[in-house]
Design brief:
The chain is an alpha/beta fold. It is built from 12 helices and 13 strands.
């Protein structure tokens, strides 16, 4: 009864967090360790361009298995390279094996939609170089053609301006718009109660490449469909890869003959980081919601014990897509408090989550046993 009361006090006061609250959820609310993690989608989910065992699905699986409440989790990667949204939908509706796997799922990740748009670009390039789009060696042959084209920049620019790709891009978006609600409904029906995490679509082209501007409006349309859906969390990989371009999440540069649009090892690690942050947010104890928060709001978090020096490392602010905001977390005026200073210029309008991670340490050695989340909205 005491533990339940402490949780209520946190939600009401919003500024006082007791370090003595070690297991704030009742035993009935704790999940068992049975079930599976299922990865669905395309070649990104499959792990292309990452060393064996280092794709984002593998990294996320290892992370989940390392959590005590998921110690018995099993991993099944059902992703298939080249799949578009209609391919995934067909698998969910017709594959008995996939349906059986999903029936045991506790956690599901989905990466789909990129091939709905990349396919038209590849087919257009194949036509320019008189290659067969159905050839299993298409990528290799196309890469060679690009390297051999001494007027490559002009070729790509003319293709981008030709108008030949837009119709197929429109079709790719329309197909996704029709498929996505059915995909989601199928997953939720086959894996009721599972936690679902969906990657949005990144733009593989460099921002100075004419194809970036060509495909970006279509990517934004698909991402809007993903980001406004219900019943899952979405990982904002689009923004992540733009913001973290210095980490080289991609090595896709047609002008240099680099024809692989998949994430690099660093890219897979960035995707994993977004997914793990979203998982922590989704599974943290709710600390309530604050609306109409000023953009320059400085949060003060009070605990009932003096904190260790590393305590600020356990506090972050995230967007709904799992992007970390550049706040400054420092010791407060008292040894038992922390101050969360907003980013330079304040928070842009939108929704955010302040996360206090489990494991936050006090000077006496006590650690927080449950993550805690407070949502707030800046208008």
């Amino acid at each position: 009864m005491l533990r339940r009361l402490l949780v209520v006090l946190i939600i009401v006061c919003l500024i006082s967090f007791p370090m003595s609250m070690l297991l704030p959820l009742s035993a009935e609310a704790q999940a068992d360790s049975s079930g599976d993690y299922i990865s669905l989608g395309d070649s990104i989910a499959y792990g292309f361009n990452a060393p064996s065992g280092q794709g984002y699905s593998d990294l996320f699986s290892a992370y989940l298995k390392g959590r005590p409440e998921l110690a018995g989790l099993q991993f099944a990667n059902l992703a298939h390279p080249g799949d578009e949204s209609n391919d995934l939908l067909a698998k969910l509706q017709n594959s008995a094996a996939a349906q059986k796997d999903l029936s045991q799922a506790r956690v599901v990740t989905i990466s789909i939609g990129g091939n709905n748009l990349l396919g038209p670009v590849i087919r257009a390039l194949a036509e320019v170089y008189h290659l067969d789009p159905s050839d299993p060696q298409l990528y290799s042959e196309l890469g060679q053609a690009l390297k051999a084209d001494k007027a490559l920049a002009s070729t790509l620019f003319q293709l981008a301006l030709s108008g030949n790709i837009e119709t197929e891009l429109d079709t790719g978006v329309a197909t996704f718009r029709t498929d996505w609600p059915q995909i989601l409904q199928s997953v939720q029906s086959l894996a009721p109660g599972s936690q679902i995490y969906v990657l949005n679509v990144y733009n593989p082209f460099a921002q100075d490449n004419p194809f970036f501007s060509l495909v970006d409006p279509y990517i934004q349309q698909i991402n809007k469909i993903i980001e406004t859906g219900q019943g899952y969390s979405y990982a904002d990989i689009y923004t992540c890869f733009l913001q973290e371009s210095a980490q080289k999440p991609l090595n896709y540069d047609l002008l240099q003959g680099n024809f692989d649009p998949h994430p690099t090892l660093q890219g897979h690690q960035l995707i994993f980081q977004r997914l793990s942050a979203l998982f922590e947010l989704a599974n943290a104890t709710s600390w309530g919601n604050k609306l109409k928060v000023p953009s320059d709001k400085k949060w003060i978090i009070k605990f009932n014990a003096s904190l260790a020096q590393t305590a600020p490392d356990f506090v972050q602010v995230f967007t709904p897509g799992g992007i970390s905001i550049s706040t400054l977390v420092t010791p407060g005026d008292q040894p038992s408090s922390l101050a969360v200073t907003p980013p330079s210029g304040g928070y842009p309008p939108g929704s955010y989550s302040l996360l206090i991670r489990n494991g936050l340490p006090a000077q006496n050695g006590t650690r927080l046993d449950e993550g805690v989340r407070m949502n707030f909205t800046v208008e």
